[in-house]
Write a structure and sequence with these properties.
four-stranded antiparallel beta sheet, globular, alpha/beta, single chain, Rossmann fold, 12 helices
Length: 286
């Protein structure tokens, strides 16, 4: 279910004194099964862009195609699109409201009209896919869970609707390192098992580098850079001009390169950088 965004533009309060262009002439494509990472400083247009992709916001101009269907022509039922495109907002645990985990995760499938047997199957699968024991927590109040577990339950509620595209806005924001790792592993598992398009926003450049097939960098409502993680993070000066950094492993590799010109590395993750350091040391012993 590929995505194609063409010349997207969105203006807040058009014709008013506080008129603001949030997105201007944004175009990009996402292929089936790809993971797209989106980065940019606060106010760059990231969240506004994401909300267009499942019809929460209608563009001022431009087109969005999902699986070849234009969702911006006014003839498409947005409920049909939202079944295909799951959007998980930042801090989704604040939207939990039911008495038990089972009821909360089942809320979306129930609204889609699924029968009880199918609903139960979907809910169990979604809870287990996010790394939780369904039988252990199904009858617990979601408010009794830890912060990381609450977030996983909230994400399970979207997964239970079996989206073909999953959008995650800062999925690891505000979590301690252990919960951060758990959520990151969960995101990988969801993508690998469901085989869906996954789009995620993050300020954590290490997460973007390790997860993404493709990266777009938003700046002042435009796509300033796009490409593979290696292509985007090779442009450190441009990223710095936009107030963005590099993955820590890339920063370390660049620092070593400045001190040891023979050191070669295009690594973006800690494991890759460590492997390049070992190789360099073995080749330059003595």
């Amino acid at each position: 279910m590929p995505i194609s965004v063409k010349n997207l533009r969105y203006v807040y309060s058009p014709g008013m004194p506080d008129e603001t262009v949030a997105i201007s002439d944004v175009s990009f494509d996402v292929a089936d099964g790809e993971i797209l990472g989106v980065i940019g400083h606060t106010g760059s247009g990231k969240s506004t862009l994401l909300q267009h992709l499942n019809g929460l916001i209608k563009p001022t101009s431009g087109e969005i195609y999902i699986d070849g269907q234009c969702i911006t022509d006014g003839k498409v039922k947005m409920t049909d699109i939202r079944r295909k495109v799951g959007l998980v907002f930042q801090y989704p645990e604040y939207q939990l409201f039911e008495e038990t985990v089972r009821l909360d995760v089942a809320f979306g499938p129930k609204n889609l009209g699924m029968d009880e047997e199918e609903r139960e199957k979907r809910v169990r699968h979604a809870v287990e896919l996010v790394g939780l024991d369904y039988d252990e927590i199904k009858d617990m109040s979601p408010f009794e869970l830890s912060g990381g577990m609450k977030r996983r339950v909230a994400i399970a509620g979207v997964i239970a609707m079996d989206p073909k595209i999953l959008i995650l806005d800062e999925p690891t924001a505000g979590l301690d390192p252990s919960a951060h790792r758990d959520i990151l592993a969960m995101v990988r598992r969801i993508h690998d098992e469901m085989g869906i398009i996954l789009i995620f926003v993050s300020h954590n450049m290490a997460d973007i580098a390790s997860l993404s097939d493709k990266v777009i960098v938003m700046n002042e409502g435009n796509i300033a850079l796009s490409g593979t993680p290696a292509e985007v993070f090779s442009q450190g000066e441009k990223l710095a001009e936009m107030g963005l950094g590099l993955p820590p492993a890339k920063e370390i590799a660049d620092l070593i390169k400045s001190k040891a010109p023979k050191f070669e590395s295009s690594a973006l993750t800690a494991d890759e950088t460590a492997a390049d350091i070992r190789r360099y040391l073995e080749e330059n012993r003595g």
